[in-house]
Please model this.
Amino acid sequence: MDITTEVHPGKQTSELVLHGRFDAHEADLFRAAVEQALEDGHHNIRVHLANVEFVDSTALAELVRGMKRCRELRGDLVLVSPSDPVRVILELTKLDAAFDIA
Amino acid sequence: MTELSTLNNSKLDAYREWAATPIEGRPKFSVVIPAYNEEWRIVPTIGAIATHMSSLGHPWELIVADDGSTDTTVELVQDLGLVNLRLLIADQNGGKGSAVRRGMLAASGELVLFADADQSTPIEHIESLVQEIDAGHDVVVGSRAADGAEVANKSLARKVFSSGLSLLVRGLFRIPVSDTQCGFKLFTADAADLLFRRQLIDEFSFDLEILYLAGKFDLTTTEVPVTWIDAPGSKVDAAKVAAEFLRDLAIIRWNDLRGRYDIDNHAAPPRLIS
Model:
């Protein structure tokens, strides 16, 4: 999986654009990207999932962890345009109700 | 010829219809997932499979063959509420081969795929397997060793194990595939019925037995390269499995010599929950 981080000046928001399969092998990479964004003072993170075809349970747990970290800092982690399979997985696990999905 | 049309903009709609509307008539595809204590992995796998299979434009059914799970696998699958998902519950753990056998014999599709519960081979590969069925093969095996295959995160022990098995199998059994153990195999309904009724091995090497039987009964078998991502939490202990595999090679030959494959072995009817 590749992660590209985009920052819009003045918005205090990090855009994490993911591409590929997000599974347990990629959890550390994602966590590092989230922590870097928070360290940079960006407490709002938008995770783009349009090009992610599969998320496993570890990836889902990592997304939840990131969301909780952001909310602790009065920000949020938003899922942007999840692909169809990822959206179905979010629904089946009932996590679609936990996240703000844009 | 099987026409498979994936329409990206209607994938979600196709899934929602499949999830809520019972299919009528015989399904084109059955997908069988064997599951033993898969509470951590099975729901995302079902989501990925259901989304893709629903997008192909054919009626299909999903069968989860529990193998006596002691965690919450059964409850999780039951709670999904997918009307075209059948759950076969086993009272006790009988081995992966026993779960796959029950699932394959319960399947009613024209083509029957079994796929591991960890989505280590992405379901999108089914199209290339179907092409080989259309070309006249009875059994098509997803292969991590064929030219063009992509394997990620596989441990050195498992690589050595797989290579050694491949040499043994090709040399001793004359099975025309380089990877007998990949958990992604497609069968015509007739082939599945013939082979799985005769399957005697319940453990890891049941795949080998099935492919051996395919050769014995003059079914045509081929392989196609697939992507395979080693999923963390794999239950395969390479050293233990290698020892069992060698033992089972001998057992399969012995079974054949005794004529045990000439008789149908009807599996006990599974406890079925729709």
